[in-house]
Amino acid sequence: MSHDVLVIGSGAAGLTAALALAEHRRVLVLAKGSLTGGSTAWAQGGIAAVLDAGDTFENHVRDTMIAGAGLNDRETVEFVIERAPDSIDRLSKLGVPFNREAGDLHLTREGGHSHRRIVHVNDATGWAVQEALLNAAKANPNITLLPGRSCIDLITGRHGRTYSGDGHVWGAYALDEETGRVEAHVARATVLAAGGAGRVYQFSTAPRGATGDGIAMAWRAGARVSNMEMMQFHPTCLYNLDVKNFLITEAVRGEGGRLINPRTGKRFMEFYDPERMELAPRDVVARAIDAEIKRFGLDCVHLDISHQPPEFVREHFPTIDEKLSGLGIDMTTQPIPVVPAQHYTCGGVIVGLDARTDLPGLWAAGECTESGLHGANRLASNSLLECFVFGEAAANDILDGWDDLPEPPAIREWDESRVTDSDEEVVIKQNWTEIRRFMWNYVGIVRTTKRLERAANRIRLLKAEVEDYYGSFRVTTDLIELRNLLQAADLIVQSALRRHESRGLHYTLDHPATDPVAKDTVLVP
Ligand code: FAD
Ligand code: SIN
C-alpha cells in the first residue's frame, strides 16, 4: 500500500503533521488500537503559551530551562515557545473551545511557571484537542486514517527484507490487528509520532499503548536516542486500589491545592522547597512526596483544595470532580489521596529543529523524540505544545524538500515462512509484569547504581528470551509491545548507568551532586 507520506500515530503530533502535509500530499495515518488511544486524549491541564501582556517569551524560556536543570537546548526552547501563540490560534480556528473570561483566553497556572500561561478546556484539554484534530483529518480527502494497525518495524535498507542498502526509511511493516496479516506501508517520507514509553513502569498515568514502540523502532533502524534516563513522575496520581492511573492535574495545585501529610495533618512542601511550595517543578514535588511516604510509612499523601469555594472547584475541575464523586470522594470538602506515578518520557529519538532524525526519509515529532526542549525535566504543559510545533516543522521540511526525495524501491513482503502461532501466551504476560515491576522498584524516582545494575541483569536475560520468542512465533500486538517495552527499559537503564550525577529527574544516591556542565546522554545503535 503506497501513499506519499506515512504518519505513525494519531495523537497531537501525528495529526498536526498530517493536516499540514495534506495541503499538498496524500497522507496515510496509522494508529495502534483506536484513533484516540494515545496520551493526547488524556491531557488535562492544558497548553503553555505566552498570551498575557505581563508575561514574556523570555520568562517562559527561563522557566523551561530552570525546570529542565540546564540540559535543554536554548535554541530549541526559543523556537518552540515563540511559536506557541500561533499554535493556539490554529487550534482555536479548528474549533477547540478554550475557556475564556470576558472574551480573553483564561490562563491557569501550573508548577514551575512564574506566570499564568496555561490555555485549557476545563480539566480535559487533551480530549478537546484530539477531537478537533481528528474531525479535521476525517474531513480532509488527502488523509486516510487506518486504526487497528500495530507497526512492527520501519522498512529500511538495514532491515534485510528490502532491496535498498543505505539506511533510508521507506515506511513501515504493520500488523492488521483484526486479520493478523502484516502489511508493508510504503512511502517516500515517514513521520514517527508514536508517543512515549510510560507503560514500562508499574504505575503510570499513560494509556495502555504507551510502550515506547516509536523509540524502539527508530533505534532498531539505526537512529540515535538521548536522555532516556529522564523519566518524569507526576506528583499527583489518584491513589485508589480500583482506579490505577487517573491523573489529578497540576492545575489543582495551580489554583491553590495544598499537599498534606495525612499522619501529621501538616503541609510538608515547606521542608523541601519553602519558596515555591506546591508549585515547585515536578521532580522536586514528586521526590518530596516519595520521601514523606517512605519516612512515615504512608500509602499516599493528601491533596486538599477544599478551602476554595465549592462552585470554584466544580467549575475548574468538572472531570476530576465527576470521577472522584463516583468513587465517593467529594473534593470540595475532602482531601484527595495521591501518589507519584510515571507520567512523561523526556528522552527519545534525536531530532533537529526540522524534525529530521538521523535516518534519511524519517522525521519524528512529539513524545517519542528528544528535541532539546525539555532537558532533564519537562515543564508542565510544554508537551502538547512541542507536538504542534514539531508536527508542523516535520511537514514543512518534507514539503520543502519533496522534489529531492527519492522514489521508494521495490519492497519485499513480510516473511512468515519460519514462524508458527504461539503456544505459550503466558510468557508475554509474565515478562510484561516483571519488567514493569523491576523498573518501578529499581529505576524509579530515587536510584542507586546497584539497583540499576540489577535491572540491567534482568533485562539481559529477558531480551534473550523475548528475541527467541519473537523469532519463533507469529507477531501479535502484545508481543510487539513486549519487545518494545523491553527495548525502552534497556535504553532507560543504560542511559541512567552512564549519568554519574543527579540532575532533574535523574536522582541517584551514589552521585548526589550536579556536574558543573550539563551533557546529554546519547546512545548510538
Ligand atoms: P500520543 O498522543 O501518545 O499518540 C501516540 C500515537 O501513536 C497513538 O495514536 C498510538 O496509537 C500510536 N502508536 C503507538 N505505537 C504504535 C505502533 N506500534 N503502531 C502504530 N501506531 C502506534 N501534556 C501537556 O502539554 N499538557 C497536559 O495537560 C498534559 N496532560 C497529560 C495528562 C496525562 C494523563 C498524560 C498521560 C499526559 C499528559 N500530557 C500533557 C502529556 C501529553 O499528553 C503527551 O506528551 C502528548 O499528548 C503526546 O502526544 P503524541 O502525539 O506524541 O503521542
Ligand atoms: C497536568 O495536568 O498536571 C498535566 C500537565 C502536563 O503533563 O503537562
Structure description:
With 525 residues, this protein is α+β, with helices and mostly antiparallel strands. Among the domains are: 234-342, Flavocytochrome C3, Chain A, domain 1; 426-523, Up-down Bundle (Methane Monooxygenase Hydroxylase, Chain G, domain 1). The protein is 34% helix and 17% strand. It contains 13 helices and 22 strands. Strands 8-2-1-12-20 form a 5-stranded parallel beta sheet, covered by helices on one side. The protein has a 5-stranded antiparallel beta sheet with strand order 14-18-17-15-16, with helices on one face. A 4-stranded mixed beta sheet has the order 21-19-13-22, covered by helices on one side. A hairpin with a 5-residue loop joins β10 and β11. α2 (57-67) crosses α3, α3 (74-93) crosses α10 (383-400) and α5 crosses α13 (477-498). The longest helix is centred in the C-terminal third of the chain and has 24 residues, at 449-472. The chain is globular, with a radius of gyration of 22 Å. Mean pLDDT is 95; it is low at 159-164. It binds flavin-adenine dinucleotide (FAD) and succinic acid.
